[in-house]
């Protein structure tokens, strides 16, 4: 069984928190997305050893590439459900947050 890379979990959660769309109910789906990213990391390492380059410059596509494509497709689907793609954020009505600059001068300008 593949162990989930916690760095991926934290990164996904942080992205969702930054967008204001994080909900703890999404944690299982976030773990699935992180597992897929972990599997993609491993597949990428293995794929490098399977690439066959011929003297003509042509390459042989290995069966492992099919696995990588499937993992990418799975991740994209989950990312869309979590609001991690531009299109899914638009559907959710999430807009980029404006930078908030606070200073004593700005606070003084606001009427009480």
Report what the structure shows:
There is one protein chain. The chain is elongated. A hairpin with a 5-residue loop joins strand 1 and strand 2. The protein has helices spanning 6-19, 27-50, 63-81, 86-92, 104-109, and strands at residues 52-53, 59-60. Mean pLDDT is 80; it is low at 98-112. Helices cover 62% and strands 4% of the residues.
Keywords:
112 residues, 62% helix, 4% strand, mainly alpha, 5 helices, two-stranded antiparallel ribbon, 2 strands, elongated
Can you describe this structure in just a few lines?
The chain is 62% helix and 4% strand.
N-to-C span: 59 Å
Number of helices: 5
Percentage of helical residues?
55-70%
Main sheet overview: 2 strands, antiparallel
Physical arrangement of strands within the biggest beta sheet: 1-2
Runs in which pLDDT lies below 50 for 5 or more consecutive residues are: 98-112
Number of strands: 2
Mean pLDDT: 80
SS class: mainly alpha
SSE topology string: HHEEHHH
Strand content: under 5%
Q: What's the gyration radius in Å?
A: 21 Å
How many domains, in number, for the residues?
1
Dominant shape: elongated
